[in-house]
Amino acid sequence: MSTAISNPGSRQVKPLFRPFEMLRQEFDDLFGRLATDWDGKWMTSEFKAACDLSETADAFQLRMDVPGIKPEDITVQVTGETVHVSGERKDEKEEKGKTFHRVERRIGKFAETVVLPSPVNDEKVQAEFHDGVLTITLPKTEASKTRTVKVKANGK
Fold this sequence. Notes:
By secondary structure, the protein is of the alpha+beta class. Helix content is 18%, strand content 29%.
């Protein structure tokens, strides 16, 4: 006959380690971003544009921060469940006689590919640019929309 021994106090110990778990996740995120930046492109003129992907019942919305880029320098391509956004932030005129003490603004090309959870109607996709934010609205196909089914009781 075997007896399982449970430790009721083990659940109380976990919250004590929660800050350490959060710290580990932050380090994983930091090193993941560093690995992405150090992939040989760090010193080139490529950069990553920050983006958010959200979903409503009818569409996905992709918002991307691309300040300093003209709308005509941005390309949006949609195929099935994939959105590819690319563009270029061009260098401003070089002014002779200036000494730069700090240079952080990146110039050059960016490219981002986002895989959506389901296919979209690529003929109805819209892209708008306002105050340095690109907003792409991607309507879902009828097949990919969530439907609610009423549950019948006793066949009624």
